[in-house]
Specification:
2 domains; elongated
């Protein structure tokens, strides 16, 4: 019988699960706040750049926290494998919590200029560094206490904490918006959800401080088998490295892009492209998340019975098959007037393709001043899809056609930033007027939005996410030996979630801005998902029921 089978009573397991899930709920609460407030954070911290670029920069600021996570995974993973699970993930939540609270106290761009976004990015890096050790510690801590035949069921509460975090975040945002009003919320009320996290931090630290070290680690310590260099053992022992590569490319990359497409990119899409009322958007996401909460537990329990591999592959296949028709449905049911106008009077840009560039400027230092770039950036800042005129080579200006209207944009080369901004403002006003005349609504009509149909689509996304994510903690834990488990599972988790998933909203939005097709950003997610399906089918082995103390 395994260590995990005998070490913990049901009463102890409830405290252990609560302590681990509380911290992970706090983790997701923070990231959901930032994702849900993308447009408001852009207004407050990137006031000096255009609307489209401001959104991209805010999404990248959101992503930079994920980019820093693999570094935290290495540092805290090594500490967790050498010094123990409990103390390590107690410190991760303290560091993460302090950084979250400080974000709510930062000065805005209007108050501190460029220093404001610099401080914001710094705190996001601190958060990401701490979070690199958070999930791995929580999942391992529960898994090493749980019976082997119920490991999926117990670790599923760590996965379900994502739903609890999102529900808490969006509920607090919704309540705060209603209490202070939208103008005050945009000005200063957005700080309240960050500062409220102080209470969640205190509760999480208190519960975690009352728990004991995991039995698997204590047994390893008693036997004198603690790894002296976990990182070296991972990269020099093929079995460990192979397992890490399979975990990364077989399901972690897919989990990252699928989960963030479903729960984060949908928010950007609904708000900026569909132009749905923010409160309707928040209500839909909260409803989707409420549905997802029990599904994490259901699919994890099914994985205890039928295996991790088939359940997780089902989730990946469902996501890849439904994202394109699903997002098209969100537009159709969310803003039918806009979709009808785009069919009747499509926006067409006539410009020399040789003058067009991929307008992705991380530091906002480039001058996209060609007629083509000015036309594309102006149209996409209005959230409108467009197509390109095929035979426009050699044109010295760019023309935006909307129905019978034609707005001509000259070159901005040789102009300073203020002059380019004025040029785009005039063009934007002209294009906006032409769109209005052609029947494009400025916002979705709340009375015409079919919220139940949209909710059904989001529920399909939730099923795909939970089928993949629910069994994932137990699958990761079961793939690696106790000596290096913290480090070995934290790295693929944080690379997949951070580098692939965390960058998804920004990359997908930038692809849409560059191509004019509001759905093309989904190719990134679907492409990564298809690769993961193939890798999982060929290389992933079933691990359910393994004795964690004998994994090699």
């Amino acid at each position: 019988m395994s260590v995990s089978d005998t070490a913990s009573s049901k009463k102890d397991l409830k405290v252990i699960v609560a302590a681990s899930a509380a911290g992970t709920t706090f983790e997701w609460y923070d990231f959901f706040i930032f994702g849900a407030l993308t447009s408001i954070i852009a207004q407050n911290f990137y006031a000096g750049v255009s609307g489209t670029l401001g959104t991209i920069l805010t999404l990248l600021t959101f992503a930079v926290g994920f980019i820093a996570r693999p570094v935290g995974a290495i540092v805290f993973g090594i500490i967790g494998d050498k010094k123990g699970r409990k103390g390590t993930f107690l410190w991760t939540i303290i560091i993460m919590g302090i950084a979250t609270i400080l974000i709510g106290c930062l000065p805005t761009y209007a108050q501190a200029g460029p220093l404001a976004p610099i401080l914001l990015v710094f705190l996001r890096v601190v958060q990401g560094f701490a979070l690199g050790g958070e999930y791995g510690g929580a999942a391992i801590y529960v898994a090493e206490h749980a019976p082997s035949n119920q490991r999926g069921a117990f670790t599923s509460w760590i996965q379900a904490s994502a739903a609890f975090g999102l529900i808490a975040a969006l509920s607090i945002i919704l309540i705060t918006r209603k209490i202070v009003g939208e103008p005050a919320f945009v000005d200063w009320g957005w700080r309240i959800p960050f500062i409220i996290s102080t209470g969640l931090l205190i509760v999480s630290v208190y519960i975690r401080a009352k728990t004991a070290e995991s039995p698997a680690f204590k047994a390893l310590h008693a036997e004198g088998q603690i790894a002296k260099s976990p990182l070296s053992e991972i990269f020099t022992r093929w079995s460990n490295l192979k397992g890490m590569l399979i975990a990364l490319f077989g399901f972690m990359t897919a989990q990252g892009v699928i989960w963030y497409t479903s729960f984060f990119y949908t928010q950007v899409f609904l708000e900026r492209i569909v132009r749905l009322d923010p409160q309707q958007k928040d209500t839909l996401i909260i409803g989707m998340t409420l549905v997802s909460a029990p599904l994490y537990i259901l699919f994890a329990r099914l994985s205890d019975k039928y295996g991790r591999k088939p359940i997780m592959i089902f989730g990946m296949v469902l996501a890849c098959a439904t994202f394109f028709p699903g997002f098209a449905g969100l537009m159709k049911f969310g803003n039918p007037d806009f979709e009808a106008a785009s069919r009747a009077s499509p926006v067409v840009i006539v410009a020399d393709p040789a003058q067009c560039t991929f307008q992705f400027d991380l530091f906002s230092t480039a001058q996209f001043a060609s007629p083509c770039d000015l036309a594309k950036s102006t149209v996409t800042s209005l959230g409108a899809p467009y197509s390109n005129e095929a035979d426009a080579a050699g044109t010295a200006t760019a023309t935006v056609r909307i129905g019978d209207a034609a707005i001509v944009l000259p070159s901005g080369q040789g102009l300073d930033k203020a002059e380019i901004k004025a040029l785009k403002a005039k063009a934007g006003a002209d294009i906006k007027a032409a769109m209005a005349a052609a029947g494009y609504p400025e916002k979705a009509d709340p009375r015409k939005a079919n919220l139940w149909a949209m909710f059904a689509i989001l529920c399909v996304f939730a099923i795909a996410c939970t089928a993949l994510y629910g069994p994932m903690a137990s699958a990761l834990v079961e793939m690696f030996p106790t000596r290096v488990r913290y480090t070995a599972m934290s790295l693929p988790y944080n690379i997949g979630t951070g580098w692939f998933g965390g960058l998804q909203p920004a990359l997908s939005f930038a692809i849409v801005a560059a191509t004019g097709n509001i759905y093309w950003g989904l190719w990134y997610t679907v492409g990564v998902g298809v690769v993961a399906i193939v890798v999982a089918l060929i290389f992933m082995k079933e691990t359910k029921g393994r004795d964690l103390h004998t994994v090699e």
